[in-house]
Amino acid sequence: MATREDPPTRLSIPQVPIHFVPAKAGDIISLGASLTLRVMEDGSNTDNRLGAAELIIAPHSSGPPAHWHEMHDESFLVTKGTVRFHTTGLEGGEDVDASAGDYVVVGTRAPHTFSNPFEEEARFFNTFTPAFYVNYFKLMAELMQVSWGVFQFRCELK
Q1: In angstroms, rounded to a whole number, what is the distance separating the alpha carbons of residues 67 and 76?
Q2: Which among 47, 78, 83, 123 is least surrounded, fewest beta carbons within 10 Å?
Q3: What residues contact 40, with CB distance under 8 A and at least 6 apart?
Q4: Are strands 122-129 and 51-57 parallel, antiparallel or unpaired?
Q5: Model's pTM, two decimal places?
Q6: Residue pLDDT, tens place only, 23-72
Q7: Helix (H) or strand (E) holding 147
Q8: Alpha-carbon distance 67 to 85, whole Å?
Q9: CA–CA separation, 105 and 114 (whole Å)
């Protein structure tokens, strides 16, 4: 038991670096002509507790198919334009038009999708926890390239 005469216990300061991502840095993943991701945190600096990306959605784009996630939560901070969030399959659910500065949280198993039916490019900062979802984007981009290559090859054969 400590007494008044005991010196205070000193805590050691953790020696863990921060991770800085400059404005034009990050892995770029193209998912077709209408959706581009800039991966800002792939989980490698957070033991996969957090992933983050900027998504850029071209005007008049439908976005991904309606879906939900069994194992991760997402958040969306709109930074440019307006993104329409759809609460697909939710009784009484309504579309939400989120503009720059608006924030949307999508919890585990919440059916959703998003689109940009507007005239202006839209952008949002997206977090997902845990971070494993970044690999899904990478795999989808690879599969799209393989599929496109197969399509081109088949067209050349005809």
Answers
A1: 16
A2: 47
A3: 21, 26, 52, 53, 54, 125
A4: antiparallel
A5: 0.80
A6: 989 999 888 888 999 999 999 999 999 999 999 999 999 888 888 889 89
A7: helix 133-157
A8: 12
A9: 13
